[in-house]
Amino acid sequence: MTQAESRTVYDASGAILPGATVTLTNTETGASQSIPSGSDGGFNFAAVMRGNYKVDVANSGFATETQTLALQVSQVASLTFKLTAGATTTTIDVTSSEPIVDVSTSSTGAVVEGKQVSDLPLNGRNFTQLALLTPGVTRGGFSSDASGRNGNVENFRYSESGGAAISANGLRQQSNNFLLDGVDNNESLVNSIVFFTPPEAIDQFRVTTSVAPAEFGRAGGAIVNNSVKSGTDNIHGTAFGYFRDQVFDANPNYFSPSQPPSGFQRKQFGFAAGGPIWKNRLFLFGDYQAYRQKQPQDAGFHTIPTVDAARQLQRVAGPERHDHSEPVQFGNGMHRLGGRPGRDL
Predict the structure, then answer these.
(1) What are the start-end ranges of the H helices in 109-212?
(2) Upper half-sphere CA count for residue 109 (Cβ side, 13 Å)
(3) Which tens digit of pLDDT belongs to each residue from 219-228?
(4) Angstrom distance (rounded) from CA 128 to CA 276
C-alpha cells in the first residue's frame, strides 16, 4: 500500500483554498475517489494501491488543475496545487520531475521496477538477486542458512543463485523482513523467505535498508516489500520457457575428458495474465510457474570387482561349505543330522 497526500491547495496569490474537490483516478483501472480539501487547504488519500494516477483539483471560479504521478510501493507522495482564476471547464496540466531527495520520509533504500525485473538477466529466476542493486546490500557470507546451501527451508530451491541471503549494511542475512503485498512472508526456522514470487508476477518491490517507517518492525536489517501485479482494463500477459540440458554444457570432467558428464536436465515454464472481469470495477490476475529437473542423486562411481578379485575374496572368506549330513533313524522314519547352514533339522 502507498499513500498520496498534499499539504495545501492554494490560489494564484498563495491563499489557501478550503472546500476544493480533489479527485484521485487510477489511469490503469479507472477507479477513482474524491474528497474535499480541509479548512487548511490540505487533503489526504490513505491506503492507496501502487500504480499510475492523475489528481484533479476543481473549485468554483477556478480552472481545474491536473497532475499525474506514479505511486510506488510503500511511498508517501506530496503534491501542491495552485489554482488560477478561470472557468471550471478549463484544465491546466502540470508536469514535474521526480525530486532528487524525497523529503517525505527519512528512510533509505531503493525501488526495483517491474521493467528491471523483466529486462535484467536472472540466472535461476531468483528476484532477490536484484536487491543487490540497492546501495549497501550484498549477499553476505557464503553458505549461510538464508542462502539455502544447507537445505533447511524453501530457499534451498534457489541455493544456486544465493537463496534469500540479503545483508543490509553488514547485518546478518537472517535479520530481514520479507513482505508480499504487505502480508508477512517470513518463515520461522532460519528467518528467511517463504514464497519466491515469479519475476513475471512482480510489479515492483522496495528494499528499505535503514530508518524504516514506524509501520514496519520485526527486523533490523532490510525490509523487502514485494508487490504483485494486478489486472487492469486492458488484457495483458506473458509466457516463458527455459530449457537446460547436459548436451549443451561443457564437460565438467576436466581431468578425464573421455568420461561422459552425468545427466542433467532442467525445464522452467509458465505464464502470467491479467485483465478486466467488470471494467473499471473488478479485475483478475494470475500466474503459474513449473519447475522440472532431472539430475542423479548420487553422481559418484562404484567399482565392481573382476572375476579374479571375486575369487580372491572367496578364498579370504573361507572354504566352501558342503552337506556332510548322514541319515539317522528315529522311530519309524529316516532323518538327517547336520544339513546345510540355515536349514532346520
Answers:
(1) 114-119
(2) 26
(3) 788 999 999 9
(4) 30
